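#struct-pred
JK: can someone run the complex with glutamic acid? inputs below
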Amino acid sequence: MDSKVRVRFAPSPTGGLHLGGVRTVLFNYLFAKHHGGEFILRIEDTDQTRFVEGAEQYIIDTLNWCGLIPDESPLHGGAYGPYRQSERKAIYTQYASTLIEKGFAYYAFDTPEDLEEKRKQVPNFQYNRAHRMEMKNSISLSESEVSELLKKNTPHVIRIKIPDEEEVVFTDIIRGEVRFDVSTVDDKVLLKADGMPTYHLAVVVDDYLMKISHAFRGEEWLPSAPVHILLWKYLFGLDKMPKWAHLPLILKPEGSGKLSKRDGERLGFPVFAMDWSDPSTKETTVGFKEKGFLPEAFINFLAMLGWNDGSDKEIFTIEELIAAFDLERVHKGGAKFDYEKAKWFNQEWIKKTDNTILAELLQPFFDQAKIEIHERSYLIKVIGMVKDRCHLLTDFISQSSFFFAAPTTIDTAAILPKWEEKKHAFFAALAQSFKEMSGKPVAAELEANFKTLAASHEIKPGDLLLPLRIMLVGGKFGPGVFDIIEAIEIPDTIKRIEHSLQLLSGK
Ligand code: GLU
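RT: done, structure tokens with the ligand placed:
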């Protein structure tokens, strides 16, 4: 790469960050770091009507959680700030004026009522070359009328004048050559009546001023590209324009259409990176973080949604992703989201993560479940025993709560069909034998003792293991039974067996 790579993630702070948004961040970040370049976070908040309190902080928190830290941002600062477009308002006006002077844009004085009226008269009305002469603007009105209106400070917007016939052609790194016939594009507003730019003007001016070398964004922005390319041509020259890549969509699990928040609600999985609480409705949407994903796994599976390194390798650390990432290997087609596969990545990362680190990450989940952990070393040991069974951090709660407190319910219904007096006698004797034990016997000793006792009662040990497990754990799950006894120790084991015997005999 000849000049410095500078990429940006340019979200509008309007709500929770969707998987697709985080993948856009990730691909920008990986590309920048692969080329030793800079990754910039720019907040595109010029649409005051869509502004949502807390959304910018949420974006910053999400990037922090993912470890995708910007080199420049409203928080980190940088040489090209401010990085919040609402604080750059004064910058855009001059560019809008330049466009007017060069004849590429015009003033439009239509009131919201005028536009409403026109929409009623003309089905699918578009403010474009077919209709602009019927409207109140500096193309349809005389020069003196226009200067009169401006003198009187009549509210107005500035619109781009889309050329009558022109084909806009550009090269997209993922899609190759893309062609647009601009006759289908309307005369977009560039500067609003309150002096704020729209996204179209602001994105081009800021990409220029911030020396952005590559602009990567979601495929949903492709229809806006012709307007941006025309603005680049009119204002700065196409040779200065960043290289574009429009990233394919993340699709619904069924394979058609963009994955939406509603799909997550329908199918029971998160779509946002972290919990998002809508300040107006107070509705909370669950995020991958709170659902129990490790950030390493989240990043890893997002990277694999639409990209691979050309081999079968699936598990990548962020350093490996940076080294291997190549935008040309991003697929053109959308990538189907598969929640089971996402959980598989998380399980692989849980297995890879050190138990001490997991203990730290799990503490808030245990706190939330009101499970008291008295000793960190005991938690670390338990984590080691159950981690192979956990796909999500939240699974640790259901898989291990019985290590910290006796189960609140015992699935006696699973024991009763094969329950008989001699089994009762066996477990009573087992409890008694435990009472006579001293010290802290290890699993192997416990197992040997159990087998000897089973033989003396003439019962196959295999017929006794399931009831024993259910007595200790509450249900048919968990690691090896004797490992559990070793961990919870003898006094607790006795209590649980005796409690279950009471339940089974209906007392
Ligand atoms: N502000 C746009 C958004 O909300 C950014 C699109 C772009 O990256 O050009 O996603």
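RT: quick notes.
Residues 88-247 form a domain with the Glutamyl-tRNA Synthetase; domain 3 fold (CATH 3.90.800.10).
The chain has a mean pLDDT of 96.
JK: thanks, will look after standup
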